[in-house]
Amino acid sequence: MGKNVNIAEETIDESMEMTEEAKKDLIRKYEDDILGGLLAAANYKESEDETAKIEVVRNGAVVLAFRIRPLGEEEYLKCKKDNTNYKRNKSLGTRIAESVDAARYRAQLIYEATVEEDREKIWMNRDAWKKLNVLNGIDLVEVVLKAGEKDEILQKLDEISGYKPNLEDVAKN
User: Fold this and answer.
1) Please, which residues bridge with residue 4 across strands?
2) How far apart are CA 145 and CA 163, in angstroms?
3) Domain ranges of the chain
């Protein structure tokens, strides 16, 4: 018995004889569906459905609220690279990673994930920069958020970015 393949609403039995032309027609019929799916999947950065609302609550009151969006792998890697200190290895003649500024890396992830509109209002607030004596939005994230708050935000960021917690690691803790 042949294997069944489900394409949208139609099920095709692979043991059925199909001409090459019939197969091409079937593929063309669903090509727009495939393209639409790919485009929708690639649009995760701009999609309102993909954002998560973050509320920083202290003493029972919301002191800060903003939205974050999923990050792509290249954005995670850029943040890591931006916050990695390199050292020249004289024997190899290349640069090697020496350490990562973890606190700044975490702050930059939150900054980059903040929806553009909220980033402009909150993290790019030059009055707050002056009062808190910081130079940029990433520094403001570092100063304003507590370590545990950053941790919760980063867990949510990883979740909406498609990372699932490793159940083995969760069980160990």
Assistant:
1) 13
2) 23
3) 4-45, 48-172
